[in-house]
């Protein structure tokens, strides 16, 4: 028999709740645009608030400060995207194909191209904000953890080493991309870089024998 609770219509989002959600979303979008064009350090909370036409007090109803809004940007877009990318690497390693790994490496370079405008702000915040370093650390740790098939092939007593290999891969890709695409201090084509990085990392990520 249907109870009174079962017969109640779904609770509709109030206009106030929707306005709060919209304001938060606009603040995230404005902060992302400012961080992308100006970097992290020069942008003030007042700048983010002004970009959406709200007050500083309204900003602080939604976020505790700049690190908090940058965390929201990461959680909303960057982190899920990069986690999906390393889930893809997990499947690629399952194939045992160097050719598939090289194709993944080329996609990795493309991924950095897509997100390169926000990377300097991320690096600045990691350097300047102790609380954001923890966010960055959590993000780094999450990448080996999504590679469940890769980890399952390593002995229990070498799990930390397996995770470290992925973390070092991430760090080298970030550093290479910064020097290559953003600083211009490495002169190489994307194709050649992908091939050399594959020569380095494909054997480094193989499951140990014995």
Automatic annotation (TrEMBL):
Residue stretches making up the HTH tetR-type domain: 21-81
InterPro entries xrefs: Homeodomain-like_sf, HTH-type_TetR-like_transc_reg, HTH_TetR, Tet_transcr_reg_TetR-rel_C_sf
An MF annotation (GO) of this entry: DNA-binding transcription factor activity
Record Gene3D superfamilies: Homeodomain-like (1.10.10.60), Tetracycline Repressor, domain 2 (1.10.357.10)
Keyword DNA-binding belongs to the record: yes
DNA-binding region: 44-63
UniProt KW keywords: DNA-binding, Transcription, Transcription regulation
Pfam families, per database record: TetR_N
PANTHER family in the cross-refs: HTH-TYPE TRANSCRIPTIONAL REGULATOR BETI (PTHR30055:SF234), HTH-TYPE TRANSCRIPTIONAL REGULATOR RUTR (PTHR30055)
Protein's recorded name: TetR family transcriptional regulator
Organism for this UniProt entry: Nocardia aurantiaca
Lineage of source species: Bacteria, Bacillati, Actinomycetota, Actinomycetes, Mycobacteriales
């Amino acid at each position: 028999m249907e109870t009174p609770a079962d017969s109640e219509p779904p609770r509709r989002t109030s206009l106030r709740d929707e306005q709060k959600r919209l304001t938060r979303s606009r603040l995230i979008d404005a902060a992302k645009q400012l961080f992308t064009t100006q970097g992290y350090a020069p942008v003030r909370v007042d700048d983010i608030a002004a970009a959406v036409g709200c007050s500083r007090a309204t900003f602080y109803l939604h976020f505790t400060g700049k690190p908090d809004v940058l965390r929201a940007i990461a959680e909303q877009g960057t982190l899920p995207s990069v986690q999906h990318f390393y889930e893809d690497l997990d499947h690629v390693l399952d194939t045992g194909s160097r050719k598939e790994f090289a194709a993944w490496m080329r996609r990795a370079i493309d991924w950095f191209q897509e997100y390169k405008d926000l990377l300097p702000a991320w690096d600045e915040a990691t350097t300047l904000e102790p609380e954001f370093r923890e966010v960055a650390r959590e993000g780094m740790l999450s990448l080996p953890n999504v590679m469940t098939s890769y980890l399952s092939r390593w002995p229990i007593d070498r799990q930390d080493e397996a995770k470290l290999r992925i973390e070092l891969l991430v760090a080298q890709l970030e550093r290479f991309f910064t020097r290559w695409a953003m600083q211009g201090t490495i002169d190489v084509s994307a194709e050649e870089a992908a091939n050399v990085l594959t020569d380095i990392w494909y054997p480094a990520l193989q499951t140990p024998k014995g």
